[in-house]
Amino acid sequence: MERFDVAAEIIQEAGKILRRCHLEQAEISQKTGHQDLVTFWDRKIEQQLRHSILTAFPQDSIVGEEYPPQENCDRKVTWYLDPIDGTTNFINQHQNYAISMGCWEGADPLFGLVLDVERETLYWGKHGGGAWQDQTPIHTSVRRELSELLLTTPGLQYTFLEPHPYQERMIRLSRKVRGVRCLGSVALELCEVAAGRADLFVTMRSSPWDHNAARIILEEAGGAIFTVDGDELPLDQKSTVVGLNSYSIKSCVFSG
Ligand code: IPD
Ligand code: CA
Ligand code: CA
Fold first, then answer.
1. Does residue 189 have its Cβ closer than 6 Å to ligand 1?
2. Domains in the chain: ranges and CATH
3. pTM reported for the whole predicted model
4. 42 within ligand 1 shell (Cβ under 6 A)
5. Which residues have CB atoms below 5 A from the ion given as ligand 2?
6. DSSP 3-state of 114
7. pLDDT digits over 192-210, tens only?
8. Confidence category of residue 73, pLDDT binned at 50, 70, 90
9. Is 51 exposed, middle or buried (0-12, 13-18, 19+ CB in 10 A)?
10. Apex CA 183: angle with CA 181 and CA 186, to 5°?
């Protein structure tokens, strides 16, 4: 089987497990604090994905959120895995969380899959093959005026409330757009922009496993993605992220 077909199969199997699971309080633990949580299910799903990928493609490398990177000698193909993106939503809502799998060959994107687990909706994109929501092609919105854009951000607190070098710029931006929404999952929010239901995405902190699948889907859908400085998004480092519905709005978003 091709890598994409393996990925499509194992992401759906993992989704079934999460839909059926009953999260116990004892399965929740803190990483760096009470707003940074991990559950038994994050680890179980990542282990299962890693095992399936390495069984099929033992030469591939894996970068996932919950375990140290597994780097194989040729390092040609790397999978970026977030077993649950939106763990807080998983714990408190049991909805609005995703499994994210991005596959890259060196610096070249191969494909990305983001499963909205509870809606049973799969967003996917293959490099050069467009972006899809299940069997339907998706495209970013055509809105180009700042005053018409809906901005989505996974963390109001980190984007607007806590001091950081871009805080004033972000607050100005929030006043210029039509509205701000906050879902709590980097992967799902980038897919909202890809599907045209949001127009702009901003976060001050994102990790490779958060965005390396959805960025492929967004670009295939006609969007563009940068750091907050307007630079190319790195593949292997934590970063700020700005997702746009079109490259053509870059200048008006970054000029403010
Ligand atoms: C987090 C979510 C959250 C975002 C954080 C991410 P996790 O991922 O995407 O919305 O604000 O920056 O780390 O921890 O739920 O996988
Ligand atoms: Ca995440
Ligand atoms: Ca996660």
1. no
2. 3-138 (3.30.540.10), 146-254 (3.40.190.80)
3. 0.97
4. no
5. 82, 85, 210
6. strand
7. 999 999 999 999 999 999 9
8. low
9. exposed
10. 110
